[in-house]
Amino acid sequence: MSCQLSAISKFQDISSLHRFLFPTTSKEGTPTGDHVSQTKSSKMDSPERDEMDNWDQDWGFDESPVTPEKEKEIFGGNDGDSTLNNWLQKCILSVSPTNDVVAAAYGHKISVLTQKWDPRKRGEEIDSNLTPVWESEIGVDEKETITALLCLPLASQKRSTHGGPDWTCIIVGFSSGYVRMYSQTGVLLLSQLLHLEKVERLKCRTYAPPRFLGLAEIHDELLIMYTRAIVSIDGFSLIQSLRACCNQVARATASGTENMLQPPPLAYKKWSLGEQDKVSDYVACGVVCANPFDQLKAASMLGGVKATVKTSPPAMNVFMTAGTGPYVGFFYAIDGITQPILSEVAIAMANKIKSALLSAASGWLGFGGKAKEEKEKPPKIEPATPLPLRFGLPDRRRAGDVIMLSPCNNYAATTDSFGRVILIDVQRGMAVRMWKGYRDAQIGWIEVKEENAEPEKNPDHYRLAQFLIIYAPRRGILEVWLAAHGPRVAAFNVSKYCFLICPCYGMLGLNNVTSRGIKSRTFQCALIDPSGVIKTVDIPFHLALSDKSSKRARDLHLLKKLKAYLKESAADTESLEETIRDLLLDMKIASIAHQGIERILSTKYLPVSLMQNLVKACIKRLDSRNNLDLDSRIMLKFCKSQRSLLALYSSVTTLNSAEVETKKLSDHEILTCVLHQTSQEAHAILTLLEQHNLLTAAANPSKQSARVKFQEDVEPLGATSFLHAFSYRTLFSNEDNTSSGDSIAPASSSSKFLFSGCLHGRCQAQELVAIIQKSNIPPEQLMSLLLQYWLSTSKHTVDMMANLYELVKSITALTGESKVIIVLKMRNLCSQSDNIRAVYLAVVTCRAVAVNALGLNGPFKSIGEPATKAADTSADSQEWEAVTVDMELWEVLVRQCEDALAIATLLSIQSDSEGSQQHTITVSVARLLLSGKGSIPEVVARYIVQQRLNPASLFYSFTTEVTREDEEEEEAEGMESEYEASQVEKTKLKGAKKQDQLDELRRRFPHNLQNDFLLSNCCWEYAVLWNKEPDETWSLELSLDFLRLVQNAVLRQGVSSLLWHMFMKKRSSSAAHLMEKVGKTPKDRLCRKEVGMNDISLISFISLCADFMEIIMDANCEAHEVPVYNLEPAWQKVEGPTSLVELAIDQKATNYGLLRLHFHLFKVMSAVLSLGVKSVKVLSLFDNKGRAALFKELHAHPLLPSQKVEPALIAARKNFLCQVITAAVGTIEPPAEMDQSVISVTSTSSAALFKRQRSLYPTAFKWPQVVQMLARDFGLDLDYFKRHHVRELYSYGHDKLGEEVMSSVNDHEEMGVQLLTIGGQRVAWEIFKRDIDRNFQHLAGMSTSLTRWLKDLEPEALHFPGVPLSRTVTLLEQAATRLIEDSRHHSLAQELMEKTKTLAHFTTHNQS
């Protein structure tokens, strides 16, 4: 059976369709488009048509075949006249997937044709014709044209339809953006404007059950593509609305009324495709749930390292687009598709029916007539949700035209402007194949199910093949290709003016119940030729198969049968071995038999004896042959290696079943007698291990041995798992080599199976090594397995070192010339492991083996004592021993392991605070050696930052002391339980352990852990932590605390320069420019956008920046020598990146003037942020030179500003500094209004009041001092700001504080005038504002000049005018003493003081 074209339908008269759609290209005498429209519409729509029809009337059926000559006559030209013959490719065509309705449109015209049975063609293959039932011009105006068309069949709800559609909806898209839905007879059912753009394409996705368990169903959905947007309408709501509208039309037709209920608007989702330049076509790939790896990859690509990942991958609606910029785009809608609730649709329909009934009743009763005359409101257009372009296939010059998705949703085919057809893998997003030379091609897909399958299988689990259909109109050929990399299976010569159509949907309204036994579509891909015949492609499944050899097919069948038999059989039976042997030995091709033996060896329930028998049978069969091919030789070597491994498995299983021998030697005796350590060395090793075990067990009780053992921990290793731990090398340089070709894959379970029994004393090392040697595993791989198991856990004890010593010694004895390679690999494995305790025990054991091999069993240099005692031990020795280079390397490695074990002990001490629950820091010898000189202080600094330790804990005894206030509260309240007391004791104990271990590390690393080096690294690590979370400014504050303690000024300057360059310059610059832009404290949203932190954290950050500049300025003024970075003797071979200390030392010296300039800026910014000063441009307070020098590198030497600036800038600076003083004074709470008796009592405690307010309001006293400093550096008058400070204090009613500050004012005359003004404002407020009727008599006793002067004052300028008159008298006395006696102000002050005393006396008398 071959591929063929089969006719499935035919037009009754396709020339009439051509004349209707293209009247200008028809022959003379052909009716025009308008006449055809009128006549056809009148005939189709007139009710008398049914009465005029009778059986005797000629129905116009044309039975003559369409010949090529007639085809030319129909289309009015020859084949070369493309303008006449390619009309099918110009118009818009849509064929219903059930092959019962065809719709064609062009411009304003549309024609709908349906299948009608022709009695004259009874018995023929095609006994019906497509006859037009509706032809008309639609559209509101001439500008509105048809741009998209879709025939959508609706599934019937009746059981007697035998799977046929109920009726077919004609969906039409217009250039105005309207989508209108008609019945197949032309009745308008729905019309809705969803988007203000041209409708480009209409596509539909109907229900499809999942092929396999776990896959998602495909639900009904209508997709509308606009120029820049995609609209998705849920199929459930759409079919409910269409059925309701259809029923409404039927009722209106039956009743003869024209009142139509307005249907409810369709619920839809809209996405915009703005990130692609142009979209020509699209496909919806459905809802996809990504795997965890793709989820993490997408999150990291979109959000970076700070991206958050959900626990479960989200469901994503995937859209693929074809166009330009990029050529193919992948859009992901994360929210997926939510099905609307039926109750919502029912409620909406009920509301519409209710409103329609009321309107109809109002028309009958004679009221409400104006409602019809009201203009309809314009439809509300919902905005589109922007859909991000996840990725695409970029090709700047290529423009995609059409994209078509395969039925299985795994491939998509596209056509482009270069005449290429490209096949794209949807899941991987890659182009996998390209066809050239297909200009103006049309594509489609056909899915073929495997035929002649076994009847007992589930029909949904049959194999499927996908074929790509390519129609090349310029060559007149239709090709069928096997996807994705298959050959061309068929090709047909067709007309150059055909139209290929591929509806990728079926009937709308099916579900998992109604879809059973129903064929939702009768064809998948069809070709409409100019003669009016619709043909489909029939493809047999066997064209997808590529088996060229019957022998291979037979062996594949046997392999498939073997796999099925192994799967069905769950246990070993008597006939199992015989059946498997027959199937395996019956295979002729070695490569397939190789797959069979691999499948047998991977079956878990098969016993080892059965596997051994089958492997031996395969070996015997292959050995009996001569002249083996490559595949047979590979299989033979594989079987021999598996035979050796199975024998090894059986022998080791027998050894592991023996009982454990009792311990005969103590730990000290094992170290001295077996490992040849001296007594002093053994004591040092045991002491170091005991200290590590004590601190580790106390710090991490959860890491102790678990009491509960699960079945996985107790169950022995199976034979299949043991074999899978070895990977077979299939290529050999010498085919006669009989050694095994196995290479060890990382498998801790296999190494545990091999060596755990010997290490626990179940067998002797020599016996185990002898058995392993028979398997031909190289000694290098045996040593790797042994060390992998030893280093995989830290539960090994000292008594197991004796067995480890024997194993290492025996395996080393097996090596010949490769002994040096094994020793090097042993050191590399030990140095790379982060299980430091196990590494230390292994290194001590391996060194003992090396000593024994070299015959150096005498005493040698101590390795277990601390570094401070090494010199004493070497001094006591009387003679020196000649040690080889290998022994020296082992000695250095032992010393490094001791130091690393001390570091690991510190890292294991974790605190219980929530902030410190982070990942555990691990170290290894190799990592410390390859991380540069600063690796050790960097690791310790990371631990300090992780534990949130402050600088005091590094230099003083770490104790958790309770303050006196806390002690009083504890005494008052008492401890709630004994548990709280135990937690406090544990915290103290852990703090002491941390401090002790830090001291131990300082003794071991006197050079690496110098105070300045450790403080610098702590400063840097806290800054890194702050940079990750900028809102947590406490970490930056701790970083500066560590920086202050660095004693060496050169190092402090260098670290500060690095901090400025890496972390602080960019954020501070952004903050300064943001404040310059807004002129006030920025809002939280702007702070997060520009600076990357909230508005509260910004205040603290700018304050810390000012402190940071002050630290650098102090370091700049000091002079110290450049520090020298030395290393300990055991760590001299460190290599890697440059350390932080070395980078800091290489930094250039800072510029003090530039530091001072930044200090001024940060103080100004801090004042604006802390005090809320408004209308201040922070950068505008500096001249051009200053603004240009800001935010440079601290070692730069730009032009710096001077004190000689423009008067406008001086005025702006004065205004700002005065605002700062005013805002600072305003932070003090204003005094309450008090009578004279209270004043007399409180006046005696002014000193205590001043001291108390200074402690309560530090801001009010700090910022005036900062203003004095800034005024001094800006070259402004300091006395001016002092007087302003005094004036503001008196204005707020803080007279005692004003008197304190007034003592530092130099210009007494000016100060007296200002005090006189404030006193006059207070008196004026008392007389004119407070009670003018009562105080009018005192006003009459004043002189005219004093009265006029008081009226000219503005008492509202005072912030707190209601100060008692007694304080005002004191104020006037202060003013009078500072004024010149002969001046006018002095006499005015004297008179005002006298009148104020009288007024005060009168007020006190009235109150009494």
Automatic annotation (TrEMBL):
The residues covered by the Rab3-GAP regulatory subunit N-terminal domain are: 87-501
KW Oxidoreductase (keyword) present: no
An example Pfam family from this entry, by short name, is RAB3GAP2_N
**Where are the compositionally biased (Polar residues) regions?**
23-41
What is a GO molecular function of this protein? GTPase activator activity
Q: Does the keyword Methyltransferase apply?
A: no
Tell me the protein family, please.
Answer: Belongs to the Rab3-GAP regulatory subunit family.
Q: Tell me the protein's name.
A: Rab3-GAP regulatory subunit N-terminal domain-containing protein
